[in-house]
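Weekly modeling sync, notes
Attendees: S.R. (lead), two postdocs, one rotation student

Agenda item 3: backlog of single-chain predictions. S.R. asked that every request posted to the team notebook include the full sequence so nobody has to chase files. The rotation student volunteered to paste the first one in as an example of the format we agreed on. Action items at the bottom.

Example entry:
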Amino acid sequence: MGEKPAEIRDAVTADLDAIFTIYNHEVLHGVSTFDTETRDAEADVDWLAGRARRYPVLVAERDGVVLGWGALSQWSQRGAYARTAEVSVYVDRSHRGEGVGRALLNALIERAPLGEIAVLLARIAGENPASIALHESLGFSHIGVQRRSGEKLGRVLDVALMDLHLDEG
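Predicted structure, as returned to the notebook:
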């Protein structure tokens, strides 16, 4: 029978502990983010405020447990980039392979036009083929590689650049 599908909803302040627990694991042990400083729900409560329409933060929840989260973020403060956002998806390591990342990324793609976002960009560490495959399966295209642009956990890393144009076709 498998697991029941996760509910995708807008994140609320009460979700920040779970969001940052998932994120901080990647900060400390993974390359899904190039952040090297952990986040704290109390200190970073303003991170969530005012984002819902243009740059939503979504959570995937099942039976009251946050399984993962995703967000759209401003790509650049320069006005000409206002139509572009970066997409990020993080899934708790114990729930990977259950379709949580796909559900979150799909929901972010659907929500983007509501915030007048026409282009989604993804930066994915080259050592994350599952994430690259997920983005490809949902229509993202490869647009380049930033060679040796990151260094984390003692490794120099490439970053795959991908985009999805929501205003074409």
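Discussion: group reviewed the output briefly. DSSP finds three helices and seven strands in the chain.
Action items: rotation student to repeat for the remaining queue; S.R. to check formatting next week.
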